[in-house]
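Many introductory courses stop at the sequence. We go one step further.
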Amino acid sequence: MSSLFRAVQLGLLLSLATAAAPVLADGGPANRQGFGKRNAEALSQLTSRERQGYFNGLRGLERRRFDQRQADLSSLERCLNARSTSSITCFQENRQQGAEQRLKWRRDLQALRQRYNLPAMPEREQRSGEHHWKRG
């Protein structure tokens, strides 16, 4: 097995583990209380074929997310290498694109979960704080 293929596999595995962590965790903010338990119960009610379909769909979402992140990194690198653009602008654009893509990913994930009658994921709390590349 080539090292590049192995690295991509490891990246996908880490991505899936990261995405699944909040889904499987009980506790946290009030709106997340009990979600992990409800989710586990709903997944256990799926047939083997349905569960396989759900996880295949989830893997597909994660692959697209990984590919998009790679494209975003290349775009950020090109932007930073361009002499006509400020680095602040590059990071702001990258941050905005990332936020839009996360929103789309959450919508796609919710649609996938809805297709298999799994509970809706709780809303994420907004993070506060300024980033170092923002002018204040």
